[in-house]
Give the backbone structure.
Amino acid sequence: MSIVPSSPLVGRAPELATLIDAMARPPAVVLVEGEAGIGKTRLVRAALDRLPRGDRAVLLGYCHQIREPFPYGPVFEALRDIRGRLPAAHRLNPVTGALRGHLPELAGALPPSPQPLNDPRAERHRVFRGIRALLTAVGPAVLVIEDLHWADDGTRDLLRFLSGQPPEGLAVVVTRRREEGGPPGPPLGLAYRHQPDTAHLTVRLTPLDVSGVGSLAGALLERSDLPAGFVARLYERTAGIPFVVEEIIRSLPGVEEPDALERAGVPLLLREAMAERMACLSPAAVGAVQAAAVLGLPADEHLIAAVSGDSAGLGEALRAGVLHEHPGGRYGFRHALAQQAVYDAVPGPDRRSAHDRAMTALGAMESPPLVQLAFHARHAGDTAAWIGHGTAAARQAAALGDTALAVEVIEGMLDDPGLPAPARGPLALMLSRLAATGLSHQRVVRLLRHLLRGEFLSGDVRGEVRLNLGLVLSNQAGDVAAGRPEMTAALAELSDRPTLAARGWASLAMPEWGDEPVSEHAGWMARAEALVAAADNPELAAAVLANRASFEMTIGSADAFAVAARLPVADPVTEVRREAARAFCNLHDSATTLGLYGAAERFAREGRRLALETGAQYPAYLVEASTIRREWLTGRWDGLRDRAASLGELATETPLIAVDLWLVLGLLALATGEWEEALKHFHNAGLDAPESRHAPVVAAAAGGLVELHLARGRVDAAVAEAERAVVRLRRKGVWVWGATLVPSAVTAFAAAGRLRAAHDLATEYAGGVAGRVAPAAHAALDAALAALASAEGRHADAAGLFARARRAYGVLPQPYAAARAAEGEARARLALGDGAATPALRETAERYARLGATHDAARCRRLLREIGVEVRLPGGRGRKAGGLSQREKEVARLVALGRTNREIADVLFLSTRTVETHVATVLRKLGVRSRTQIAPPA
């Protein structure tokens, strides 16, 4: 009997609609088919639950894998509970009396039994007619027969009879496993024929995709924030089969642990199901299945035969659906849990022998797969071969640029209690070096800390491992507070290895991290260079040079480009070029902050190339994230929100390295009036722990938050945020990072009547950026001075300064900042009574609109309306009949975010009554009844 899943129905909307429609419009015959656990029963139950109300009988029967002799049992089982729906016996077709012996529960409600017939075939036909007549009498009904693949021939014949000429009010629904088809051909036999006046449908269920698996797991766990990496791994292990997803979710210890799915093991029901299927196979087929389980990966016929020791059995295992054919002529399991269930059931000695045969077969290949060889050596009990193959596999992966695989191999070996102590030191050192250039960090950090607590690492190895741990904590984990102490302790342990200590001092010297003044960072950099100068270590020299180039660029030094030109981009050693890759990615980030966008693009190209060559995942991700920030600054906003969100999903384990993305998402939300979203994103960009986050991005996020408070009329909150941010910037002393912050802070101070504070900040900023190669900072200085002049009522000076800022931002280019400066200039000219202000303000509104800054555009339009200028929104002409206008799209977007009419009015500078009118129009045009049904417009 099928087990009714308790999981929600996910990803089956089209199939559900088809099934409901067929059930509601008899006569109909529907076959629901798919592999075991795919959700056939769940779909049928959901359709029955959602059927339109009416006087309809639902009759359920089940085919059983182990059954007693009982002809037509599943159908009779479905008919046993219909007594209450039957008319009086004298009104029933007399042929139904033939069913008295089969349905003793209904004997009193049926006509008398007819005289027996001498011909068994005629008797069977009379029973079939009796069942059909009884179903006709029941009235509108749905007959559901589950698991047709286990039906006896008689039941198949009966269903074929009923389906061939179903009563007018009957819908027949049968479910069947597709991979266990019994006799070949159609499920109801070759004699089955469709009737033209009966709907005949086949609903085929396929596995869920990654999104569907995530939705199902989220519903089962009652969570909407499952990490993308967890969902992807869950899909990989379950192949999207709902039953398997549900079973493994039920056995999970939790989803936060990176290896939660691996530790969950194989659910008991799945183990039992696999054991049941294996019991039906011949010894040769069992051998093939067990060989495939030992190999772990889909393999070709020859490899499976070499491990099983027998060339027979594979075909039978495939026909039984235990093994499946994969692309490229390889064979394996449908999903990882099935493989694990079979593997766990193989006796230990047999497993070791099979692993040994696998080692022999794989080792004989022209290019032996080292990772697989290490795996089989470990499980065959050959420790020396395991260490040798594993170390070689990690080195090969790193040399080919696959750092993630190298880290995974070493992690697995170090995490194994069977690894001998003498082998742990070299592997720990290799892991720590590779982790510093990869993305993954959570498991690495735990493992390295565990190793550092042990006694088997020598002093010099311990110091280097601890130094790399500090780098991973400060960079990938974004936890400077935890990383700095590790690095400081490592420097003490590396006192007798000055060249390696140089790497530690050079890392501490990066001013973007920590709250020390830049002068202290400069001292650490000088110390690193002094230590490495006397050494002959190209990799460490490249690391220190990379940090020097990054240091010079991030402070806007005129020497930065000369230092960058010395980076060893063509060095034959991968590790040396990996340091150059890191440098170019850092240079791109700093050049983006400075407003050197042409140089930033060149750095990005070189950084990507080198990172791809050398497997430097962490720098490669950083250059992609900071590219998103550059695209925002340079006005390439089309699709930027989706690109930023998608890239952020790649950093589920290391969200703090995605601060550029959260910053951009916050700034986009600010420009469209999505206040709560902007606040959340600015928080994630570093304002949650500003002392421990990436300082240039934190400064920009603080500038965005100041603007957010000002837009909402919260001047006191804006001033408080500005004061905190300026204190951090002043303490660090790298004023070129203030291009987004300082103009906003000056505006906030002036709005609060603190003109002296605004003046002092502008003056201090001017001194801080003087002589620096930082076009964005110099344009921001003009904008800050213009805001100050405007607040002081010096409108002519303000107009000139805003114009200069507008031109500077236009050259960079920074279109949004240029539009803000143009708006300030127009407002200053309005105050002067300049007639050119009106068209300038109209053009500025259009600039904002073209970018997608709807809140800013609405602000300009409100000002135009206030001075008596008619404003027409762009995009009003030529749209399709019934389509949303530009204003209606803006309203719909905010409604979809859950904003009230009052909040929408504040964002778009409209009256509440006007917003009410727009909302009503949106509801009408979209054909929905409720605000909650409005989706964000595309």
Q: What stands out?
A: The domain at 886-933 is CATH 1.10.10.10 (Arc Repressor Mutant, subunit A). The chain has a mean pLDDT of 85. The two ends are 47 Å apart (CA to CA). The first helix runs from residue 13 to 24.
